[in-house]
Amino acid sequence: MNDLTTSQLQTLIRTLTTLQTFLHELEGQMHLEIIDGTGKLARRSYTSLHKTVATILDDDYVTLLTIDDGDLTEQQIVSQVLLAGKQLVAHLQSVTGLVNMQSHNTHIQTAPHIVINSQNSSEETKQDLFDMVRQAAKDAGKDVDSDIEMDDDGNVEIEI
Questions:
Q1: Torsion, Cα of 18, 22, 25, 27 (10° steps)
Q2: Residues 89-129 pLDDT 10s
Q3: Three-class SS of residue 150?
Q4: Rounded to 5 degrees, what angle do the CA atoms 16, 57, 92 make?
């Protein structure tokens, strides 16, 4: 896989968000057993989102996550879309760095900017996080004085 441009990364992040919302709604429909008439729409929606990702990522795994065009029941189509969709979400999270890394009172986002929200953490935890990020940035050759900031609430933002 080639390095992504900022525009490609932004498109993948938007697609990831849309895909997660779509799958959440579809899963809700399935749990409520109101999927009659939704299979073809679900397949078209997923296929469109998948195509967006596939045009950016030259990746065999993404290619694998297509939906069968055969004569399937609504239940089978929705099941395939949910399975493939969740796998595509996991892959996109890995590629974009937007893995859900929440733990207690600290939330970490790793793309397109690294943001560590530690508002409700102790002062010691905030400082430890800041020091850890500062050292990692130094090790990576970043200008830590201009690229890393911590605001009054303890949020750390790193320009990558």
A1: -130
A2: 999 988 887 765 444 455 555 555 566 666 667 777 777 77
A3: strand
A4: 30
| CA dist., res. 5 & res. 38, Å (int) | 35
pLDDT at 96: 83
**Quick check: pTM over 0.85?**
no
Tokens read off for 4: 């992504």
Determine the Cα–Cα distance for residues 131 and 126; give it in Å rounded to an integer.
9
CA distance 66 to 53: 11
Radius of gyration of the chain, Cα coordinates, nearest whole angstrom: 20
Number of Cβ within 10 Å of residue 30's Cβ equals 18
Burial of 18 (C-beta count, 10 Å sphere; 0-12/13-18/19+) = middle
Token output for 123: 């002062």
The two tokens of residue 38 are 């939704």
pLDDT at res. 73: 87
Q: Are 98 and 16 in contact (CB under 8 A)?
A: yes
Task: Check if the beta carbon of residue 63 is closer than 8 Å to that of residue 84.
Answer: no
List the chain residues with pLDDT less than 50.
101-104
